[in-house]
Amino acid sequence: MPRAGLTPDLLVAAAADLADEAGFDNVTLSALARRFGVKDASLYSHVKNLQDLRTRLALYAGAEMIDRIALAVAGRAGKEALAAFAGAYREYALQHPGRYAATQVPMDQALVAEAPAFRRTADITYGMLRAYGLEEPDLTDAVRLLRSTFHGYCALEAVGAFGAPRDVQRSWDRTIDALHTALTHWPGGR
């Protein structure tokens, strides 16, 4: 019997907050149960297990992130859209480290394909890249380039790994310039 007041959505939102506070790896059913002052078993009426909770958290965070990105890129194209996309991505990753970490875990591709937020992510990302005249298989390669660049930069920035005296924002801006150049002059025929 479900506990009054607890819902799957409420648990996922609390798990998202816990992830940002304590780290994604510290999101457990026990930690979540303590947050609500209930026994672990009370949560099983709302989520199947820890993997189910973490999958729901990944979908929740992915939806939040793409909502921010969509708002940032609306009405923009080319370098302006790329910079807005990248800025929203970076801002989300730095403001919500636990939620962001949830979006980086491998998930069942069938589940991903069914999730509206992930379809929307693909639509927005591929739409932005089509402005550069890219088509498959180059679109997939470009998505991988952007994701790995954004993720790597954000991961290093989050742990303070950029120790050089150069302003981190200026380096970020140069990174976007370099990506724009790479996308504009994408190598063909491969």
Please write out the topology:
Blueprint: H1 8-22, H2 29-36, H3 50-73, H4 78-95, H5 97-103, H6 109-114, H7 116-130, H8 138-158, H9 168-184
Point out poorly predicted stretches: none
Largest β sheet strand count, sense and barrel closure:
none
Strand content: under 5%
User: Mean of the pLDDT scores?
Assistant: 93
By secondary-structure content and strand pairing, the structural class works out as: mainly alpha
What is the terminal separation in angstroms?
57 Å
Tally of alpha and pi helices = 9
Pfam families: TetR_C_33, TetR_N
Keywords: DNA-binding, Transcription, Transcription regulation
InterPro entries: Homeodomain-like_sf, HTH-type_TetR-like_transc_reg, HTH_TetR, MT1864/Rv1816-like_C, Tet_transcr_reg_TetR-rel_C_sf
Organism: Streptomyces phaeoluteigriseus
Task: Tell me what the structure shows.
Helix 3 packs parallel to helix 7. This protein has 190 residues and is mainly α. It has 9 helices and no strands.
Kindly list the characteristics that best describe this protein.
single chain, 190 residues, 9 helices
In a few lines, what is going on in this structure?
This protein is mostly helical and 190 residues long. 69% of the residues lie in helices and 0% in strands.
